[in-house]
Amino acid sequence: MLRHVTAGIDGSPASLAAAQWAAREAARRGAALRLVHAWEWHPRPAPSVPADMSQRALAEDIPAGVVDSVRAAHPGLQVFGQAVADAPVSALLQAAEQAELLVLGSRGFAGVAGFLMGSVSQRVVARASRPVVVVREGGSAADEHFSAPDGISPDEIPGIPYRNVVLGLDTDRPCEELIEFALEAAGRRTSSLRVIHAYARPPDFATADTLVPVRGPELLAERERVVAAALRPWCDKFPEVAVVANVIEGRAADELISAAADAALVVLGRRIRPSRLGTHLGAVTHAALHHAPCPVAVVPHA
Questions:
Q1: What is the pLDDT of residue 109?
Q2: Cα distances (Å, whole numbers) of residue 158 to 89, 169, 253, 295
Q3: Taking a C-beta distance cutoff of 8 angstroms, is the pair 237, 267 a contact?
Q4: CA–CA gap between residue 145 and residue 296 (Å, rounded)
Q5: What pLDDT sits at residue 175?
Q6: Fewer C-beta within 10 Å: the chain N or C terminus?
Q7: Are both 173 and 215 inside the same structural domain?
Q8: Residue 145 located in a structural domain
Q9: Do 131 and 210 share a domain, yes or no?
Q10: Domain limit, last residue, from 82, 114, 139
Q11: 213 and 271 inside one domain
């Protein structure tokens, strides 16, 4: 089977940004790009459907147009477009199973420090069996790199070093798939990997006759040892990637969103755990998807 990255598109600016990001990622991986537009037939077509055009024809026009746009920007990339007559969530989940990576768009709020995760994107991220990257509307290739000097042309941007990749690490569940994904992403970009581990200091506890304080330096040192032990075998496996670990007392979501301001990509995990209440993303991943200013990769793991 042909190795490929898949992007879900619907003709919106956010999905076009996702398609362009997916094209750059496919090129970095040496893979092809598949663009998928899911549509459903309605007995009463939307006003946007021309009277002289069928719903299917309009649906097939969307991937065809995006394919032309992506090929113009990436002439050496294999690009395929497909319109799928199915519910968007089902179509994208099925497409994700066959791809190395699924890329979706997220629309920005006007005047609000956050982003709108559409219901389709949110349900796909929460249920996909493969990693999913959510890309912000308005994002460009230049955003992945450090600031360029004035007067530089667009074709010179790839020569500017990439910003680092940020990994949110939970030492209670140091998932191998998550760490490997982040290191591979940094390796493809020849960038560093910044690992963020945030923790909350436990409350002081009482003995029979006194209150015993939890010493901050001792707790910090212990957390640093745990993080170093979790990363050590992976640093040996990826010696070409510079890894910087930041162990911080604070809220994980706040620290990751702050680190994302200077990152090319944030990598987070999502536990696969069936529940009668359905799947969910977790508070930290949910916050990053809504507020991190750079693309966010969500890697499912046991």
A1: 43
A2: 34, 29, 30, 17
A3: no
A4: 16
A5: 84
A6: N
A7: yes
A8: no
A9: no
A10: 139
A11: yes
Question: What would the pLDDT profile of 191-238 be if each residue is shown by its tens digit?
Answer: 999 999 998 877 655 445 555 555 678 888 989 999 999 999 999 999
Q: Which of 87-91, 118-122, 238-242, 278-282 has the lowest mean pLDDT?
A: 278-282
pTM: 0.88
Does residue 114 register a pLDDT over 50? no
User: Residue 3 belongs to a domain with what CATH number?
Assistant: 3.40.50.620
For residues 155-172, one letter each, b for 16 or more C-beta atoms within 10 angstroms of the residue's C-beta and e for the rest, the string is eeeeebebbbbbbbbbee
Structure tokens at 171: 């030492």
| Model pLDDT, residue 215 | 62
Distances (CA, A) of 32 to 3, 16, 22, 71: 6, 17, 10, 11
Residue 94 within any structural domain of the chain: yes
DSSP 228-260: HHHHHHHHHH-TTS-EEEEEEES-HHHHHHHHH
d(CA 277, CA 264): 34
**What's the residue count for the chain?**
302
Confidence of residue 110 (pLDDT cuts 50, 70, 90): very low
Place of tokens 């497909």: 82
> Is 148 part of any domain?
no
Note down the domain range covering 158: 154-302
How many distinct structural domains can be found in the chain?
2
Residue 158 CA neighbour count, 13 Å, CB half: 8
Q: How confident is the model at residue 24 (pLDDT cuts 50, 70, 90)?
A: very high
Could you tell me if 54 and 189 lie in one domain? no
- Point out the domain boundary residue: 139, 171, 193: 139
pLDDT of residue 111: 40
**Could you tell me if residue 146 is inside a domain?**
no
In degrees, to the nearest 5, what angle opens at C-alpha 111 toward C-alphas 119 and 285? Answer: 40
39 plus 97 within the same structural domain: yes
